[in-house]
Write a structure and sequence with these properties.
The protein is mainly alpha-helical and 156 residues long. The protein contains six helices and two strands; from the N terminus they run ααααββαα. The radius of gyration is 20 Å and the shape is globular.
């Protein structure tokens, strides 16, 4: 067994005074604040963030499969199936009992699903508006582009 040699501290990739100024830390702080605000608002409407995201996506793209919805809402396929089952039991979506072909069972919003989504959207969009107001309008396009670049760089 060999003893490991003490290593020199690694230099951060940019000029931050401490970890709380690193890009990853600040992104996580923003994400945690967003999640907390959304959880609070959605709880009042008996929805979770993944359930709300699923309703939003199905309103835009009816017929998405569990696998596609799971990817788009950042959950595992197994968790996505639990989300879909909960939404179906609440009468907010419909899915066929069996797949026409393959394993995909396309999901669609019910009238109640559309109504619940419409009710909660104003509250969720108000959170988005609070975030957007914190950014000077002339910086918003750059911020969105940079966030997309960050995600793409890490997905490679």
């Amino acid at each position: 067994m060999t003893e490991s040699m003490p290593t020199e501290p690694t230099e951060p990739p940019h000029l931050a005074k401490d970890v709380t100024q690193h890009v990853g830390y600040l992104l996580k702080r923003a994400q945690a604040a967003l999640r907390g605000a959304m959880d609070k608002v959605l709880r009042e409407h008996r929805l979770t963030v993944p359930q709300y995201s699923t309703l939003e996506l199905l309103a835009l793209h009816p017929g998405m499969s569990n696998a596609d919805l799971a990817r788009a809402t950042f959950v595992t396929r197994q968790s996505g199936n639990v989300v879909l089952r909960g939404l179906q039991e609440a009468g907010l979506i419909t899915r066929p009992a069996t797949a026409d072909h393959g394993r995909a069972r396309p999901a669609h919003l019910t009238e109640e699903g559309h109504a619940r989504l419409a009710t909660v959207q104003a509250a969720v969009y108000a959170i988005e508006q609070r975030m957007a107001q914190a950014i000077p309008p002339q910086h918003m396009t750059v911020l969105l582009t940079d966030l997309d670049r960050i995600a793409a760089a890490l997905e490679e």
